[in-house]
């Protein structure tokens, strides 16, 4: 309050009060409610800092708590498994697009062999699809995972992958390898904040830390993580927004479970009459005709027990919380899913109140959420594939002419995700046919939605129809019968002429 307000308050406190009230109302009208400093939001203290400064002091704690819930919370597992099913699923199929069909088939065959555990993993324990699932899980929980490109012998080609936890980045390292760079959180950056290399702390097989860390050039590694701020350097767990709610739900479920176990038991208290002799409560007589102490007694089915004279029984019957818990958990699971950009059905797998339209709409919206992780995962897979192609050439598995002059041509490829079954195949097939006939979708779009390459689909269809005609079996299809005869005059050869 200023000097003028003090003088006014001395003369007329009511006038000073009204003046102050109008001033506060005017200030509220001038500012955002979210920036208000009133009674409700006065305790909301927040400051603006760079993303790395904000994350640095919380990253390890959040990762540890996320891992704890990963081990102990079924709600968190439902979120992780939803991403596993829809981002990786049954895996991805390579479609090489070099322009040479023979070379394409050779690369695709070599890639299928390399994806086996003994060829792609330095430990020989996980196939490429299993590595992708692990990468997706670690990205959700830990915030990221590091894959090192190891050029070793013993496989199909001298190239394998080594998965590294983000914990193994040497955060104590401060001296850069190159002058002008900086090391932050075990990652060496140049002046443009571009990663130049990774300092990996070494451990023995039992997990004991060794003194020296090893430098890995950024060209020989891929750091799978999501970057959400320009100033962000290291990873941050994708579950950060929902960890507190998941933990609260976990604790609530445990409390309800304990309460239900208590409610399932019948507890009885025996109200004793005043003792007839002695002093205080400790004076209890025992004997055939004396008073009997009930301490330690248990109720069993069918038992008959005679109480002492004057004693009475009070039964304890706690109420059940299961009914209220169902609606509470449904709401909490919906909020957990919303925090991860997913629908309630995707997280809970509860389709009880869903219709076909609502379930299909939620599935479509969820696909947009998964698309970000799919894009990031495919970018990593493409870099791995480029290393694979070069290794195939160095190992003599393929020898395309002019590869080093036009590497982009020979590394061209696409990834086809394994299809998943639809909610209603008949409706989906009808919708696809209508969209195709009306020009809303191309044949490439329809095949891509079903996880197939359109060229491969046409070749497979043509092979089936040709074999069916050869054997005299009507296989159906868009190019069979009169349409096939119009396109191929020899299609009806071998059939008896009509009289």
What does this structure look like?
This protein is α+β, with helices and mostly antiparallel strands. Among the domains are: 1-34; 54-73 and 95-241, no CATH class. It is built from 17 helices and eleven strands. Helix 1 (3-11) packs across helix 2 (13-30), helix 5 crosses helix 8 and helix 5 crosses helix 12 (356-394).
Summarize the structure.
Helix content is 45%, strand content 12%. By secondary structure, the protein is an alpha+beta fold.
**Order of helices and strands, N to C?**
HHHHHEHHHEEEEEEEHEEHHHHEHHHH
Termini distance? 112 Å
Determine the number of helices (DSSP H or I, runs of at least 4 residues).
Answer: 17
- Quote the beta fraction: 5-15%
The SS-based structural class is: alpha+beta
Gross morphology is extended
**Level of helix content?**
40-55%
User: Order of strands side by side in the largest beta sheet?
Assistant: 4-5-6-7
Main sheet record: 4 strands, antiparallel
Question: Whole-number radius of gyration?
Answer: 35 Å
Global mean pLDDT: 83
Q: Which blocks of ≥5 consecutive residues have pLDDT under 50?
A: 479-489, 491-499
Number of strands: 11
Give the topology, please.
Layout: H1 3-11, H2 13-30, H3 51-56, H4 59-72, H5 74-88, E1 92-96, H6 101-114, H7 117-120, H8 128-141, E2 144-150, E3 160-164, E4 182-184, E5 187-189, E6 195-203, E7 209-217, E8 221-225, H9 243-263, E9 267-271, E10 312-316, H10 322-339, H11 344-348, H12 356-394, H13 407-410, E11 413-417, H14 425-437, H15 443-449, H16 454-471, H17 482-487
Antiparallel strand pairs: 1-11, 2-3, 2-8, 4-5, 5-6, 6-7, 9-10
Helix pairs in contact: 1-2, 4-9, 5-8, 5-12, 9-10
């Amino acid at each position: 309050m200023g000097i003028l307000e003090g003088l006014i308050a001395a003369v007329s406190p009511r006038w000073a009060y009204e003046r102050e009230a109008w001033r506060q109302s005017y200030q509220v009208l001038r500012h955002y409610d979210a920036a208000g400093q009133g009674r409700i939001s006065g305790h909301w203290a927040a400051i603006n800092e760079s993303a790395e400064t904000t994350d640095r002091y919380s990253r390890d704690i959040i990762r540890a708590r996320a891992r704890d819930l990963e081990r102990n919370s079924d709600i968190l597992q439902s979120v992780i498994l939803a991403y596993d099913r829809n981002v990786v699923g049954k895996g991805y199929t390579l479609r090489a697009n070099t322009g040479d069909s023979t070379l394409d088939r050779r690369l695709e065959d070599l890639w299928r062999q390399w994806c086996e555990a003994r060829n792609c993993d330095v430990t020989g324990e996980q196939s490429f699809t299993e590595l992708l699932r692990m990468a997706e899980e670690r990205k959700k929980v830990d915030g990221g995972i590091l894959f090192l490109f190891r050029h070793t012998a013993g496989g199909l080609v001298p190239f394998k992958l080594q998965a590294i936890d983000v914990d193994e980045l040497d955060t104590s390292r401060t001296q850069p390898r190159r002058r002008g760079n900086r090391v932050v959180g075990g990652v060496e950056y140049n002046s443009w904040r571009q990663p130049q290399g990774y300092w990996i702390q070494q451990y023995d097989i039992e997990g004991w830390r060794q003194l020296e860390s090893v430098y890995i050039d950024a060209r020989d590694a891929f750091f799978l993580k999501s970057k959400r701020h320009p100033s962000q350097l290291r990873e941050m767990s994708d579950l950060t927004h929902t960890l507190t709610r998941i933990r609260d739900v976990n604790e609530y479920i445990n409390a309800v479970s304990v309460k239900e176990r208590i409610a399932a038991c019948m507890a009885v208290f025996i109200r004793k009459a005043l003792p007839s002799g002695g002093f205080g409560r400790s004076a209890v007589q025992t004997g055939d005709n004396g008073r009997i102490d009930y301490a330690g007694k248990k109720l069993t089915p069918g038992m008959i027990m005679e109480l002492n004279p004057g004693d009475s029984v009070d039964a304890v019957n706690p109420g059940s919380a299961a009914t209220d818990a169902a609606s509470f958990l449904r709401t909490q699971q919906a909020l957990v899913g919303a925090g991860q950009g997913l629908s309630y059905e995707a997280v809970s797998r509860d389709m009880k109140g869903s219709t076909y339209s609502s379930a299909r709409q939620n599935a479509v919206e969820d696909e947009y959420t998964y698309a970000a992780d799919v894009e990031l995962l495919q970018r990593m897979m493409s870099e791995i594939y480029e290393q694979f192609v070069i290794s195939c050439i160095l190992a003599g598995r393929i020898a395309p002419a002019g590869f080093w002059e036009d590497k982009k041509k020979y590394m061209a490829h696409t990834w086809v995700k394994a299809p998943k079954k639809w909610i209603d195949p008949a409706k989906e097939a009808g919708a696809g046919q209508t969209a195709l006939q009306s020009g809303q979708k191309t044949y490439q779009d329809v095949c891509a939605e079903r996880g197939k390459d359109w060229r491969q689909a046409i070749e497979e269809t043509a092979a089936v129809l040709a074999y069916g005609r050869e054997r005299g079996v009507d296989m159906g299809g868009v190019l069979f019968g009169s349409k096939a005869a119009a396109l191929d005059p020899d299609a009806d050869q071998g059939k008896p002429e009509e009289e």
